[in-house]
Amino acid sequence: MKPVLRDWAELLRISALFTVPGDALAGAAAAGLRPNRRTALAVGSSLCLYEAGMALNDWADREEDAVDRPHRPIPSGRVKPAAALAAAAGLTGAGLALAYRAGRPAALVATALAGTVWAYDLRLKHTAAGPAAMAAARSLDLLLGATATGGKVAKPSLLPATALGAHTYAVTTVSRHETQGGSSGAPLAALAATTVLGALTAGRPPRRGSRPAPGDLARAGLAAAYAATAAKPLFHAALNPSPPLTQRAVGGGIKAMIPLQAALAARAGSLRTAAALTGLVPVARTLARKVSPT
User: Fold this and answer.
1) Could you confirm whether domain 3-288 is CATH 3.40.30.10?
2) Are 171 and 250 in contact (CB under 8 A)?
3) Does the CA dihedral 192-198-203-205 come out positive or negative?
4) How far is CA 43 from CA 24, 64, 100, 106, 268, in A?
5) Which residue in 178, 187, 144 sits closest to 49, CA to CA?
6) Distance of alpha carbon 226 from the chain centroid
7) Helix axes 214-239, 158-175, angle to 10 degrees
8) What per-residue confidence (pLDDT) applies to 204?
9) Contact 153, 42 (CB under 8 A)
10) Which of 57, 106, 184, 221 is buried most deeply by CB count within 10 Å?
């Protein structure tokens, strides 16, 4: 990868980008609809708004990163602050434009999502409302897919949106300690939340004497994969809350997004969507070895 491209890939945390399409696709599945052209527009909007948030995050944290993470693209001088801010603005505009093409309801949800992203990066990140704002952004992203696909917010999509938001809240709480470490409580709380979400997503076991359906097995397997992906690094961070292990816990929580989205899609009865999302896991892992998702 050329140096300039690698610098921007690091700034935009390109390896975490593969956790984004599943939001819209899980939203479409929760609405009981097959993905369509408007779903694709929602995915494109989500990708743009997510990357806008990444660029804006590093722009807003450039002075803090100069002390704690001087190797990051902006404090190291590899990406100019003005370029990062311009990228954030341009990507936000592109995301809103794509959502507008998916219909007015989707545009309204995307506008709320964009506002949440900018509010988090510029103001709420270092306040007590930070984790809640990040959780709201992920929940809105799933609702964007449901709204774009069906033309309205479907009530069945509210539960998976809440589940995705709860996972995001837990991971964001841990991430607040990733540069300095020192917190065992946050990883322990996130571990408990992961366990509960995994159990709820897996659903009830089949009745005695009945065979589990393929969808039940897929949902249970994906829920177990989600819990395993997030739980191990969280457990290690709880035992030793050092910055490296805390960062791994955050990275594990980000990677766990994909199996969680797949499990939510399977729970809604969309096994094809779940299988497609599962295929993103090895790609995300490969890129994570080259560009950190945190």
Assistant:
1) no
2) yes
3) negative
4) 6, 32, 13, 11, 19
5) 144
6) 13
7) 20
8) 57
9) no
10) 106
Beta strands in the chain (DSSP E): none
Check if the beta carbon of residue 139 is closer than 8 Å to that of residue 165. yes
CA distance 16 to 171: 14
Buried b (16+ CB within 10 A) or exposed e, 273-286: bbebbbebbeebee
Count H helices, E strands: the chain? 14, 0
pLDDT digits (tens, 9 = 90+) for 73-112: 999 999 999 999 999 999 999 999 999 999 999 999 999 9
**Which residue is associated with the tokens 């540069």?**
179
Coil vs helix vs strand at 176: coil
Amino acid found at 108: L
| Token output for 200 | 């709820």
Considering only CA atoms, give the Rg of the chain: 18
